[in-house]
Structures are given as C-alpha cells and as structure tokens.
Amino acid sequence: MFTMYFFMIFMSGFYVFCSVRKHMLLILLSLEYMVLGLFFLIFLYFNIFGYTSMFLLIYLIFSVCEGALGLAILVSMIRGSGSDYVFSSYLFVC
C-alpha cells in the first residue's frame, strides 16, 4: 500500500517536472519531490528484503549535494538576469 503511495509521489513530481518548464525554482522543487519519493521507495524495498541501509545514507548525501548545486545555479541565474525564467537569454551565454 505504501509502495503505491510513494510511487504516486514520484510520478506527480515527474509530471510537474515534465509539464512546468517556465521557472527554475519549480523545476528544482519537482526534482526534490522526485528524490523524496524515490528515497521512500528505496527505503521500503530495503526494509522488505532486509538489506542494509548504508546506500540510503549515500543517496541522501548525493541528493543534498544536488539540491545545493541547484540552489547555487538558481542564485547565479537571478543575479545575472534578474529572474528565474529557464528560457531567458542568460542561460545561452557561455
């Protein structure tokens, strides 16, 4: 039962990620929502089969690093262009 619930969390995050492409903040929030849903799915899987949860710690470390890098890119975009629009001209400048 919980597996289906967490799968729906992951799929709703994936739907928002695919459908809303205007603001970088919404993209980052949907990615974090997907990471959270996938974390709970992996947690349930490991509890069912009795595996060690060291992988979950590594997964959380990488997801925190991903979130920090995403926020750094967002701050850089807002400082450079003044908005968080994905298709602004700031993104296409090398």
UniProtKB/TrEMBL annotation:
Signal sequence range: none
GO molecular function: NADH dehydrogenase (ubiquinone) activity
Bilayer disposition of the protein: Multi-pass membrane protein
Gene that encodes the chain: ND4L
Protein keywords: Membrane, Mitochondrion, NAD, Translocase, Transmembrane, Transmembrane helix
Segments passing through the bilayer: 31-50, 56-78
GO CC annotations on file: membrane
Localisation: Membrane
Keyword Translocase among UniProt keywords: yes
Protein name: NADH-ubiquinone oxidoreductase chain 4L
Family (UniProt): Belongs to the complex I subunit 4L family.
Reaction(s) catalysed by this chain's protein: a ubiquinone + NADH + 5 H(+)(in) = a ubiquinol + NAD(+) + 4 H(+)(out)
Organism: Loxilobus prominenoculus
